[in-house]
Amino acid sequence: MAQELNPYSRKDLDQLGVANPFRTYSNAVYPRTMDEVLQWAEWLWMRHGVYTMAIRRSIRYFLNELELYGDDLSIDERKDYSLQLNRDFNILTKAALVGDDFIGFGNSFTSLTLPILRSIQCKECGHSRVLKKLIPEEDYTWEGFQFHSKCPACATEGVQERKDSYDKSSENGLQVIRWNPRDIEIDYADYSGAREYYLRIDGDAAGKIKDGDHLTLCSTPWEFIEAVEEEQRFKFNPEKFRHFEIPPVATLQYKVKGWGMPLFMSCFSQVVQLQMLDRLDEAVATDFIIPLRYLTPSTTKGGVDPLQTFGMGNFMGNVMKMIKEHKNDPTTWHTLPAPVEYNVAGGEGSQLQQAEQIDRRIDNLLNTMGVATEFYRGSVSAIAGPPIALKAFERSWGHFVTPITSWINWYLEQCSEQLGWKEVHGRLVMSSIAEDDTSKQVKLNLSSAGVVSQTTALKAFNIDPDIERERLKEERRQQADDAREENAKEMDAQMLDEYVQQGAPSQIPPNAAQANMGLPPGEAAPPAEGGVMPAGAPGAAPAGPPAGGGGSPTLDQMQADAAAAAQQLFASPTRQSELANMKKTNPTLHALVKQELDNMEQGIQSQALTQAKSQGGM
Hints:
Number of strands: 15
Largest sheet: 5 strands, antiparallel
């Protein structure tokens, strides 16, 4: 008959008298309750930095970018939501912390809520005051889980009514509360899997509520305060609460009752062995690294024992004096009445340390959890080609990322409900460091063929397509501005040539429409009484360069000629005929003079309107 082995047996020998192979120290200390599992998880997370950093890197490896999408979501809305989530809400950082709880403890418990704005209101007159602006014991007192105060409006003393609202303008978005798993209780139905979650309120938190701590009373949801008053567990609202767990095998479900199991529990013996080696390494570092040095009296050449001639106390006094003088002055000379021997004990720490064994246990622990060695040791860059272990890690840990994605979408759902956002969903964009140049080139080729978008191809090179599109638009605008400036210079040169040659201009120079706004300044004389202009032949302004000026006229000279001609023609009764003659003889000057006349008329109308308003005000 085959011998039956019981792995859970604590007997040293089995029925045949053979040593029980399962009677090990790691099995003896194996956690028997969920609280013990969580204690081990907390201890391992806080005491072993390599283990903790490996998990943190593994989680954040998948949290590169969040891509938003929705049926009714415009491009501008998607950009605005993305900006708020990444810049203001730090959504990926919060998701990473949720992932730390999920992997490190096997369970993540979170709540989402808006900041509370609590006020107290007088029951008589309805006067309301914000609680956080009040001074405890001066503006109000906390007695019997009620606010007592004197109303500053009607002077009524007594219990004030509590009013709660939510701050939807918070720049930090929804508050993410990560609950301590050791404070959570789960009511679990074995055959249906239904669960209800409760919180055992911590004694310190309950004490603050009972004592009336001002900050606690201003920010704590009232349901928690009621639970403390009734000395009951707090029941979570399933719409505002989420539990993500690493599910155990079916044979453990009846034991864990709805809880998840941390990954290290499947290699618990490695954790215990790692701690044993750490303890040994610490002992070696304490007692065997620095050797013990000591001096002893030595026999003389004749075989005489120096202790026979002088006492041990005299010898010790001389040696200690020599050591003290050497510390004060290492270059001094020392004398002793007898020869001594220098001896060293210990110092063999380098031979006793178990660095290789410790690294081996760490490798076994993390490899059992599916973390690639190249990944947590930071040696990926030294590997030629895509590391196989890293690709295996991406595939094995892919299902751990799904709960984090679900948590992010739950966060976005609460943003829609509590902040008034449109319906929006998110997905994590995977960016593998194992992606080689060949796969990147394939994406570029697919983008050129129209199979994938340019966004997908550019992100393989860590290029933000939105930023690049804005840069391209800016470059096009700059090129258009440069082209318009160059065309304007060419048009100015063309107008000068037409003015000299008395040819018809292709268009009015842009400067002419802006020169001499209002009445002409300087030596130009205003119209005389009766509307008669100063003497001078209307329209006789020079059509070419001024006498003695030499060379081609400039735009300033052209505008000066036009201003002088406009002054003469402004009140002339023959202005229309003069303008007609000017158009035939010098079309360029005609265009400039016509513009100057229009500017002068607008200036006079503006002055008249201003004067009329000022007289009406008086």
